[in-house]
Amino acid sequence: MPKTLQFELTGEAENGDRMPPGEPANALVPAKSFALVGPPVRPASHATPSKWRRRGLWIGLALAGCVGGWLLYAQPWTAGVAAVTVEIVTPGPVTRVLAVNGRIAALRSVDVKSTVAGTLVSPLAEEGDIVEQGAVIARLDDTSQQSAVRQAEAALDQGLVAQTQAQDALRRAEALGGNVSRVTLDDARRAMERADQEVGRLRALVDQANFHLTKFSIVAPIAGTILTRGVEPGQVVDLSTPLFTLADLSELVVETDVDESYATQIRPGMPALLQLTGDPGTLDGRVSFVAPVVDAETGGLAVKIAFGEPQQAPVGLTVTANIIVDRREAALSAPRSAIETTGSGQAVFVQRDGKAQRVPVSVVDWPADRLIVTEGLNPGDSLIVEAEGLSDGQPVTMPGQ
User: Fold this and answer.
1) What secondary structure letter does DSSP report for 26?
2) Distance (Å, rounded) from C-alpha 312 to C-alpha 365?
3) Any bridge partners for residue 351, and if so which?
4) Residue 238: in which H helix or E strand, if any?
5) Distance (Å, rounded) from C-alpha 184 to C-alpha 43?
6) Average pLDDT of 231-240?
7) What is the mean pLDDT of the chain?
8) Quick check: helix, strand or coil at residue 383?
9) Which end of the chain is more exposed for a tag (fewer CB within 10 A), N or C?
10) Residues 276 and 317 sit within 8 Å (Cβ to Cβ)
């Protein structure tokens, strides 16, 4: 049934409004009552917010239900099923190899330098020449030394004359016998001794001058091949100037450096496989020398590898060397990608009952794609070859399943 709304209005009197007699002009107009019939009307300012609040609440509940359902279905806090590749762990022969690069060098090589300063007048030897030990391979200007030799020889000649005179004087004194005083005879003998000593000293000077003269001829200290020549005629050289590099090419070796991390595992006598640059074949070798000191600047350990048979190859040629450090006929190994390293150690994942199970292991760390596993794995285990992204107990599947 329609409701009746009543309103009372009051206000100041305006033209046309009738006031009771005796009331002032600005008195309030008596209240007038009005009646409106119809359904109740709510103020507009209160209707819209309430409506949208109810709608927002229902929408929020619907969204929360969808999200909750998806979380219960997907369970993102748990790892999903991962597709993995496995290999069956089987004992087999394993070779631990250290691969390094080196260069061919002569076992016996020497840098030839002059022991005196001077001007080079004739470099007799050229690069590639084969020379014998003691052969003259270069000469320095020896004009000044030739003069020194002649002066020493002239002084020796004077000393020999004085010696002869002293000998004659002594013979005369001795021949006179008692006709000369004893003092005169003793003086003659002492003069003879001084002359002999002087001659000896002058002979030594001559020998020294002649020996020094030989230093102006550069000779080969060993038999071999001239590898390099670093001087030209007319060049002034001193004791530090390298003149030639001479090497005996009858016995070649491979010189290389091994990182200090593996220094304690390299020993003389270890076999090696060598491949010369440009030659597809491999050659047998053996570690012949291991330096007793690690280079403090480079952290490298000098190693020499001898060829099993004499080789002819240019010095300095790059050689790839695989030093065989360890051979095991029946060992367990795993790909490096299968090994997970954490703060607590190393582990692998094996597939058991459709899940990835973490297994702690001990391995021989080595720069290789496969590592020897000494503890943790057993023959027949299904080893997951890629450990990245896996977690313990995570469901896994293999291709074809």
Assistant:
1) T
2) 37
3) 356
4) none
5) 163
6) 92
7) 84
8) strand
9) N
10) yes
**Any residues with CB less than 8 A from the CB of 39 and at least 6 apart, and which?**
2, 3
Name which of 88-102, 116-130, 360-374, 387-401 the model is least confident about: 387-401
Q: Are 97 and 323 in contact (CB under 8 A)?
A: yes
Provide the residue type at 148 as one letter: A
The torsion defined by the Cα of 179, 180, 182 and 188, in degrees rounded to 10, comes to: -140
- For residue 249, give both structure tokens: 């090419």
Q: Coil, helix or strand for 347? A: strand
Q: Which two tokens stand for residue 74?
A: 């997907």
pTM of the predicted model as reported, rounded to 2 decimal places: 0.62
**Structural domain spans, the chain:** 3-38, 82-93+329-397, 115-227
**Nearest Cα residue to 316 out of 363, 255, 397:** 255
Q: What letter would DSSP give residue 59?
A: H
> 85: which DSSP letter?
-
Which CATH number, 3.40.50.720, 2.40.420.20, 1.10.940.10, 3.40.50.10140, labels domain 82-93+329-397? 2.40.420.20
Between CA 271 and CA 280 the distance in angstroms is 19
pLDDT for position 111: 94
Q: In the chain, pLDDT over 90 holds for what percent of residues?
A: 63
Length of the chain: 401
The candidate with the shortest Cα–Cα distance to 359, out of 40, 342, 368, 102, is 342
Average pLDDT over residues 327-336: 92
